[in-house]
Amino acid sequence: MLFRYLFLALFFFFIHFSLFSQSLPPFKGLRFDEDYTFLKKDSVKKKFYRKLKYVPLNKNGSAYLSFGGELRQEFDAYNNEDWGIRKLGHNNFHLQRYNLHADLHLGKQFRIFSQLRSALENGRKDGPRPIDQDNMNIQNLFVEYNFLYAANEKLYVRFGRQEMFYGSQRLIAVRDGPNLRFAFDAARISYNKNNVTLDALAASDIKVNTGIFDNKRSKEINLWGLYSTINFKRMPNTSIDLYYLGIHRANTKYEEGTGEETRHSAGLRLWNKPSVFTYNFEAIIQWGKFNSDNILAWTASSDIEYTINYKKRYATLLGLKTDVISGDGQLNDGKLGAFNALYPKTGYFGFDPQIGPANLIDVHPYIIQSVNEKIFFQLDALMYWRYSLLDGIYRPGGAFYLPGNSSKNRYIGTVYLGQATYEFNSFLTADVGMQYFNIGKFINDIGGKHSALLINTRLILKF
Q1: Which of 104, 162, 310, 428 has the most C-beta neighbours closer than 10 Å?
Q2: Residue 16 domain-assigned?
């Protein structure tokens, strides 16, 4: 309880402080990717906040500490979150997330990064979901050693608890939308030379318990792989990702049943850096074993954006995402066709999606309108169909949700989203969103009676 009050005091202090502070470079999705060594210069380290971001420990500043954190308050008002199947009705609740981190550098070669997390839920009718509650635990605690630290070549190893994401976060993500972000106990080797990056990783995922310092890692390595990115010299804005990822899980559930799974994924992604015309194409094939069944699953996706008045004050971004994600074609035939998204980015289908990336066909047009450098509006429409009529639907995190072999209807529903974001400055952001899930015939067939409405508000402070 004392720790919570400390966080709240920091929250209100930094809200006041951020409104009158000079900004630094934008915060990263992974906070340990931030670099504040430029604050060595006497001319830029006079203010309190800048001293917090760079605390020299020796005369030449090669050893230093950096502190930071995040404080997020979220209020959700749901109506028929379960489409009336479990009769949840109105469900209003409050989510809180608090992170504090310290980054210790001992020269250019050695580093320790640590981060505490506290995530709280209050008011939800049937209690916190697995993505909501974790009173206090370690989110990141790793050591890093750099073997090479040249301008055009780097080689480092990172060992310990750490967040990770790769590419468009289809298979490995931090999962920033929910209250709890993913973390792994992992060993990772990263090599970067000129236009090529290669990562090798072996990891155990974390079982979240809701108490204090009681999270546990799995007893075996259950995620491993290689991920490479190649930037083309002749086309400097265009890149290709090639990767292989493997998982092993002792207890996975599908419409087919529950059992042990070893699955391999190979993927290719072609993408370019944000510009007037931006694209992101990805294809993944999966194989392996589920109990005695052979796995053969796949997905193909595209995300295309065109920006009117690019880099201008009143820019308009028009986008279209599409996905085709395989499901199981026949029960008890010795084959499993359901796709497994491993550790996906749940926000890919909206800010609080109800459908996950398996057995799915979706079309997702969207528009983002900037009023100025601080205010943005976004409108989305997501149309969902089942890929296989003999498979059900899955949760945003990839877990099996509701069976579907009793229905012959493909159409799941259409989701309409609207969101407004106001960035006070680089520290403080507020947004409010509305999401309406208009149910289709498939949801009716499995017992759903009501469309779902969510109103979501967030206040996010980073420092």
Answers
A1: 162
A2: no
- Domain of 334 in residue numbering reads as 68-462
Instruction: Count the Cβ atoms, other than its own, within 10 Å of residue 154.
Output: 15
Q: pTM score, two decimals?
A: 0.92
* Mean pLDDT within 415-441: 96
| 391 vs 407: CA distance, rounded Å | 9
Would 290 be classed as within a structural domain? yes
Q: Are 455 and 433 in contact (CB under 8 A)?
A: yes
Segment 91-111, tens digit of pLDDT: 999 999 999 999 999 999 999
Smallest CA-to-CA distance from 430 within 397, 394, 402, 456 is with 456
Task: Give the count of domains, the chain.
Answer: 1
Distance CA 418, CA 367 (A): 10
- For the record, the structure tokens of 323 come out as 């996905």
61 pLDDT above the threshold of 90: no
Q: Is residue 21 part of a domain?
A: no
State the CATH number of the domain containing residue 414.
Answer: 2.40.160.100
